Amino acid sequence: MNVWAIADLHLSLAKPDRRERYAARWLDHANTIAKEWRATVKSDDLVLLPGDLSMAGNHRDLQPDLAWINRLPGTKVLSPGNHDVWWNGVEKIRPMLRHSLLAVGGDAISINGVVVCGTRGAPVLDDDAAADRLAESDRELALLDQALEMAASLREPGQPLYVLWHYPPFDQHKRPGPCVRRFEEAAVTACVYGHLHAIGQWSMAVQGVVGSVRYACVAADAIGFRPLRVSGSRR
């Protein structure tokens, strides 16, 4: 089994949103993702989707986007991003997921010999950040602690542990956020994240192994709208 990751699909099949108004690379991006996905991912692979999956504003408009993801090869694990306003808790999301879709949100699952956990996450903040942003960060870190604790209870010796965390775990100066220490202490194998859409940000994003954890920015446009292989053997 290969493990792949891609974030920021920004699907909007119910109410089309022309994302090329932000950058020309987004023109017909859903078809590009589907083509690249089918060229890389096999039916027995695992695909991690750390947030900003759909621009839907409610569960009704979300359905075409979930169906679209479900039709693609592989088992997919979803977690929310800042644009996923339809996400109102993992327990309410799971009943509507199709057969190839799973979700994590402050908890963890064991699937095909690996453990996956995650939550939306929060950006790395300065000490003088507004009180409401600090409170939001604290809530997400508490959910991360909860997810990592559950992951530890599910994990067998030698099993990989993947974390979905929508925001970059390091700031623009590559200084670690408070999530990074937690990843190290939990012996996380890899953290996949997205959120970054400016070309200038991609070169500054932390990639590869730092400490004992592998980090990968998998924002769709940053990786050419093609799922990135996080682990597994080349085919």
Give the secondary structure arrangement, pairings included:
Layout (H helix, E strand, L loop, with lengths): L2 E3 L23 H12 L5 E5 L8 H13 L3 E5 L10 H4 L7 E3 L3 E5 L2 E6 L11 H24 L6 E5 L12 H8 L4 E4 L5 H4 L5 E3 L2 E5 L10 E4 L4
Parallel strand pairs: 1-2, 2-3, 3-4, 6-7, 7-8, 8-10
Antiparallel strand pairs: 1-11, 5-6, 9-10
Helix pairs in contact: 4-5
Describe this structure in words.
Helix 4 packs parallel to helix 5. The chain has a single domain, classed as Purple Acid Phosphatase, chain A, domain 2 (4-Layer Sandwich). By secondary structure, it is an alpha/beta fold. A 6-stranded mixed sheet has the order 5-6-7-8-10-9. The longest helix has 24 residues. Helix content is 28%, strand content 20%. The mean pLDDT is 94. 40% of the residues are buried.
Looking at the overall shape, the CATH architecture is 4-Layer Sandwich
Query: DSSP strand (E) fraction?
Result: 15-25%
Structural class computed from helices and strand pairing = alpha/beta
Largest sheet, if any?
Answer: 6 strands, mixed
Averaged pLDDT, please?
A: 94
CATH T-level fold name: Purple Acid Phosphatase, chain A, domain 2
Shape: globular
Task: Please give the CATH class.
Answer: Alpha Beta
Helical stretch count? 6
Given as residue ranges, the uncertain stretches (5+ residues, pLDDT < 50) are: none
Radius of gyration: 17 Å
CATH superfamily: Metallo-dependent phosphatases
SSE arrangement, N to C: EHEHEHEEEHEHEHEEE
